[in-house]
Design goal:
By secondary structure, this protein is of the alpha/beta class. It folds into two domains: about 250 residues, TIM Barrel (Alpha-Beta Barrel), CATH 3.20.20.70; about 70 residues, Non-ribosomal Peptide Synthetase Peptidyl Carrier Protein, Chain A (Orthogonal Bundle). About 40% of the residues lie in helices and about 15% in strands. Strands 3, 4, 5, 6, 7, 8, 9, 10 and 11 form a nine-stranded parallel sheet that branches. Strand 9, helix 8 and strand 10 form a beta-alpha-beta unit. Helix 13 packs antiparallel against helix 14.
Length: about 350
């Protein structure tokens, strides 16, 4: 049984990766609906949090339906990170997660995120200070190393374990790879099988469907799997993976009507949390992803992602269901929304 602190996560838990401007409460709601076992907030700047930045403070808002949830923090200085962790703890998440993996230049080049991989002693010192300062479990997300010549994840993991982290998520790329090339799970496997590692290891990178998830669980023996970009436009991937792990068969695909109903629910939750017009603007990437690949969709997509009228957007969504009602209609499949 996989546990982080007092949170029992079951066998082979699936984690939604923290993604800036993606994994907000509306998206987390949808992913939980489809079986994500653990979710995270978007990452939060320690500087923004301690300066009472409105955007950072807003990200601390969590709901009971999201539990267990982690609040993820990033920063490059110890004292602000410790103070931010204490502020985050007051929001009562299940754990505090430290982002030592974000590869974005403006963050990593300041020494935060994956930039910490260039200063492992500071990373370890910061982590210990946070572990000592809060009562909640502290976890870490990082990468294999800074570049191809410094894949030091096993040494980093051992040091972080020694200062008290309760779980470690590893993205199978270096910082310099960003999101290019293939994720390398060989070091994740080696880390999990290292005789001195006794904390849960969560693997991340290129989990694009149920078959690859099953293979990674079996070949790498990871305690959990984290899914990021593959969930965008496909939040039902969590349900697909669980169905495949349980039955060995692929789940029937969602019909266009189901995707439309899902987009409408997601949109309503976005408006509920962000109001207009922001709730409209920030749904646009999701709308495009939900209906990616539909034939002759360009004109409808443009209308969908340029409209600023809520009623019109709902009308466009309904028109999609009508226009594509004969496409992708699986048999013997109970609609996901039938019991909502």
């Amino acid at each position: 049984m996989f546990k982080i602190g007092d949170s029992e996560l079951g066998e082979k838990p699936l984690f939604l990766a923290p993604m800036e401007d993606v994994s907000d409460p509306s998206f987390r709601y949808i992913c939980k609906l489809f079986g994500a076992d653990v979710v995270y907030t978007e990452f939060i700047s320690s500087d923004g949090l301690i300066r009472d930045g409105a955007k950072s403070i807003k990200k601390l808002e969590i709901s009971d339906y999201e539990r267990p949830i982690g609040i993820q923090l990033y920063g490059h200085l110890i004292e602000p990170m410790v103070e931010a962790a204490k502020i985050a703890e007051a929001s009562s998440p299940e754990f505090i997660d430290l982002n030592f993996g974000c590869p974005v230049r403006k963050i990593a080049n300041r020494g935060a995120g994956a930039g910490m991989l260039r200063n492992v002693p500071l990373m370890v010192k910061m982590t210990k200070a946070i572990v000592d300062a809060v009562k909640l479990p502290v976890t870490v997300k990082t990468r294999l190393g800074w570049d191809e010549d410094s894949k030091n994840i096993i040494d980093v993991a051992l040091q972080l374990q020694d200062v008290g982290i309760r779980a470690l998520t590893v993205h199978g790329r270096t910082r310099n790879q960003m999101y290019k090339g293939k994720a390398d799970w060989t070091l994740i496997r080696a880390l999990k099988n290292h005789p001195d590692i006794n904390i849960p290891i969560i693997g991340n990178g290129d989990i694009t469907g149920p078959e690859i998830a099953k293979e990674r669980f079996e070949s790498c023996n990871v305690d959990g799997i984290m899914i990021g970009r593959a969930s965008m436009g496909r939040p039902w991937i969590f349900k697909e993976i669980k169905y495949f792990l349980e039955t060995g068969e692929k789940m029937a695909p969602l019909s266009i009507r189901e995707k439309v109903e899902l987009a409408k629910l997601h949109f309503s939750k976005s408006l509920e949390w962000k109001n207009e017009p922001r709730g409209i603007f920030e749904m646009r990437r999701h709308f495009s992803n939900y209906f990616k690949g539909l034939p002759n969709f360009k004109e409808t997509r443009i209308k969908l992602v340029t409209s600023i009228n809520t009623d019109e957007i709902y009308e466009i969504l309904d028109s999609i269901a009508d226009s594509y009602k004969n496409l992708e209609l699986p048999d013997n499949n109970t609609p996901w929304y039938s019991d909502q």
